[in-house]
Structure formats: C-alpha cells, structure tokens
Request: fold
Amino acid sequence: MTAPRSILIIGASRGLGLGLAGEFAAQGWAVTATVRSAAQQAPLQALPGVRVEQLEMTDPDSLEQLANRLNDQQFDVIFVNAGVAGPEHHSTAQASAEEMGQLFLTNAVAPLRVAERLLPNLAAEHGLIVFMSSILGSIEAGAGLGMPLYGASKAALNHLVQCFVRTQDNPKLGVVLMHPGWVRTDMGGADAPLDIDSSCKGMVAQVSAAVGQPGLRYQDYEGNPLPW
Ligand SMILES: NC(=O)c1ccc[n+]([C@@H]2O[C@H](COP(=O)([O-])OP(=O)(O)OC[C@H]3O[C@@H](n4cnc5c(N)ncnc54)[C@H](OP(=O)(O)O)[C@@H]3O)[C@@H](O)[C@H]2O)c1
Reply:
C-alpha cells in the first residue's frame, strides 16, 4: 500500500481554502490546513482526517512557530491560498500607505516568506508549491478587468515567484501560479459565475497532475496557460 499524498494549505478558514481542504480530503489526501485563529477551526474540524494548524501569514513569529510545530514533516504539495481583496475603493488616489502595505504584504510578500521558510518541508524529489494568483495579476490579460490595486498585488506575487524560482537549485521543484476562476466567495462576490465546488474540483485535478512535474506554470483551474 502506498502512503496517501499530503498537502499543506495556507488560509483555509473559508472560501476556496476551505473548499480545497474538503476536496483534497475527499480524494484521499492527508490534509493539513491553517486558520488565523483557533476560533475559526470548526469548519475544517468537521472534515474527516484534516489536521488544523494556525498561521497569521503576515506575522514572522507566527510563521516561525508553525515551522517549528511542523518540524521535519514532509508534504507533497504546499498550497499558499490566503489573500485579501484590498480596499473597497480600488483607487490609487485614495489608497493609504497602511492599505497598500497590508495588501502587498499579504498577497505578494508573505506567500514568498511562507514558501521560503517551509521549503525544507516539501518533498525534494517531486514536491510542488502552488501560489494562489489571479488572472487579474496578468500584465497582458488582467488590465481592464477591474480591481487594479489587487491586480497589481497579484502581478507582484507573480514577479516574486519568478524571482524565487530562479534562486532555487533543485531542478525537480515544481511551482504553479493558479487562477481559480471567478468564484462565489466572500471575495469573489455573489455575481461570480463559478461555485466553490467546481473551482476546487478543477484545481485539485490540476494539482494532482502537476505533482512531480518540474518547472514554473501560470495557469487556471482548468489547466489553461495564462499570459504573464
Ligand atoms: N474568489 C475569486 O473569484 C478569486 C479569483 C482569483 C483569485 N482568488 C484568490 O484566491 C484566494 C482565496 O480567495 P477566496 O475567494 O477564497 O477569499 P476569501 O473567502 O476572502 O478567503 C480568504 C482566505 O484567506 C485567509 N487570509 C487572509 N489573510 C490572511 C493572512 N494574513 N494570514 C492567513 N490567512 C489569511 C482568510 O482567513 P480569515 O478567515 O482569517 O480572514 C481566508 O481563509 C485568494 O488568494 C484570492 O486572491 C480568488
């Protein structure tokens, strides 16, 4: 009997992260998933076999504590899903330094810190890191789709991931920048065409196929490549 595949999902209290935890668990994966506070554990704890951990992604101490708790546990996949929409005004004119700091720290800088710190926990021979990006982060395709500040934060994520990949000397490392589609979550809103289940089923199929595939891809939940 072979061991089930294992995944660490960062940011799984609700929305797509919670949906991913449920779908990976349903497909037999060993799932560890994080929430920011203990009070948010209940939906994940209701999923059979899911281990719940705690991480505030923008807090270096919280990341260090998670790394210590994980110790030398190995994952086939680390999926950094957590993200924020940014200020509702979506306006460069109105944006405060605090709003921009929080948006870019959460969506662009913190995901890379997580990946760098937890890289020793990724299976070296076939491991895959997935970062939740967005089509809105595409320089070619994202402009004009709305939410420019958020899109810029995801473009920054895409850039930092490209930089990260170039510093890695493991030729077997796989990295995916994922667009989940436009999905009905707290962030996606009620008008989005996709439900969480459809998006997550697609992403789980894509991630399952990408394990063991080295190199960097920017793609959507159906496997379509996206222009940078
Ligand atoms: N929905 C869409 O249409 C869509 C499209 C493209 C990309 N995305 C991306 O997909 C990801 C998930 O989005 P969603 O629609 O599921 O959003 P959501 O419902 O707002 O959920 C966001 C998740 O990220 C967590 N999170 C936010 N900041 C965090 C931090 N500093 N540390 C740890 N966790 C944090 C939240 O935790 P709390 O509950 O504690 O706030 C929550 O679990 C995001 O990266 C988003 O940018 C979404």
In short: The chain has a mean pLDDT of 97. The two ends are 41 Å apart (CA to CA). The CA atoms of residues 160 and 166 lie 10 Å apart. The chain has one domain: 6-220.
